[in-house]
């Protein structure tokens, strides 16, 4: 298969046309993602993104994590795909929609800066829809135990599940990510964000990504952390979210939709033998 390796702030992906996998069933796709994403025996990536044109001509995005699990949505992944589609003239406009398993997302590629923006939609706080188990309607600063520690988290849906934990030492908490990701209080597992709000417009975030592990950046994770911070009054209007891989600019649109903007870069192109 022909492929392109890309990254958004170090969160990296292998992108390829769905054409190569037309005859694969779900199990075979999962196995292929594991092999392709392996950093020693494959190309190496946090995820595999396959794309094709839908019946109406709009691009369709499908994503598998490095462990072979299917992901509904990925903020950095969709930004990488948008950049590729424009550079390869797959899309004639810099402003278009992409269909994902989390719904239709509006993307924009800036010709001048090369940055890619995406409308991430409205954050979901209803526990049953995220999903997260809670005795109340919302999972807001709810306590739970994982990894031998008691945590206080805010569950947020950004097309995929997240739990945001505010702490003064976010960089020291990643070792607990796996235990939290797989906690039975999150029926479908969860992405985990350890966050510090240093000001109303600045967030430091470390991410443990579901099905991947610690990653330099996560678009939906940055948006979830921002949404959680706004929910409890730690952030307002906009924020620069500092991740180990760099900065994503997050803001709230007029309709409450979260807007995300940042870089997406092509690393190399190649061929992989399936």
Question: How would you describe this structure in keywords?
Answer:
alpha+beta; six-stranded mixed sheet; twelve-stranded mixed sheet; 274 residues; 18 strands; single chain
Topology:
Elements: E1 2-8, E2 11-17, H1 26-37, E3 47-53, E4 59-65, E5 70-71, H2 75-87, E6 95-100, E7 103-109, E8 116-119, E9 142-146, E10 149-157, E11 161-166, H3 177-181, E12 191-199, E13 202-209, E14 213-215, H4 219-231, E15 238-243, E16 246-252, E17 258-262, E18 265-271
Parallel strand pairs: 2-3, 11-12, 13-15
Antiparallel strand pairs: 1-2, 1-18, 3-4, 4-5, 6-7, 7-8, 8-17, 9-10, 10-11, 12-13, 13-14, 15-16, 16-17
Number of strands: 18
Task: Please report which band the strand proportion falls in: under 5%, 5-15%, 15-25%, 25-35%, 35-45% or over 45%.
Answer: 35-45%
Largest sheet: 12 strands, mixed
Low-confidence residue ranges = none
| Range of helix content | 10-25%
- Globally, the shape reads globular
Give the overall average pLDDT: 96
């Amino acid at each position: 298969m022909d492929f392109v390796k890309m990254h958004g702030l170090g969160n990296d992906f292998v992108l390829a046309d769905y054409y190569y996998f037309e005859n694969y069933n779900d199990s075979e796709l999962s196995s292929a993602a594991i092999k392709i994403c392996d950093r020693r025996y494959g190309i190496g990536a946090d995820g595999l993104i396959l794309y094709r044109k839908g019946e109406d001509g709009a691009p369709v995005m499908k994503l598998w994590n490095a462990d072979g699990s299917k992901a509904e949505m990925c903020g950095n992944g969709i930004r990488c795909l948008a950049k590729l589609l424009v550079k390869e003239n797959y899309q004639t406009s810099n402003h278009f929609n992409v269909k994902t398993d989390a719904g239709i997302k509006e993307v924009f590629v800036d010709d001048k800066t090369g940055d890619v923006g995406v409308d991430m939609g409205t954050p979901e706080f209803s526990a049953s829809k995220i999903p997260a188990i809670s005795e109340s309607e919302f999972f807001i600063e709810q306590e739970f135990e994982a990894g031998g520690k008691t945590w206080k988290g805010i569950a947020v849906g950004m097309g995929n599940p997240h739990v945001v934990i505010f702490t003064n030492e976010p960089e020291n908490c990643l070792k607990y990510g796996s235990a939290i990701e797989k906690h039975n209080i999150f029926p479908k597992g969860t992405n985990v964000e350890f966050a510090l709000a240093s000001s109303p417009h600045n967030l430091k975030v470390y991410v443990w990504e579901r099905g991947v592990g610690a990653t330099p950046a996560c678009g939906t994770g940055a948006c979830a952390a921002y949404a959680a911070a706004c929910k409890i009054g730690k952030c307002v209007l906009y924020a620069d979210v500092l991740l180990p891989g760099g900065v994503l600019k997050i803001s709230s649109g007029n309709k409450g939709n979260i807007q995300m903007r940042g870089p997406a870069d092509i690393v190399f192109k190649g061929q992989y033998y399936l």
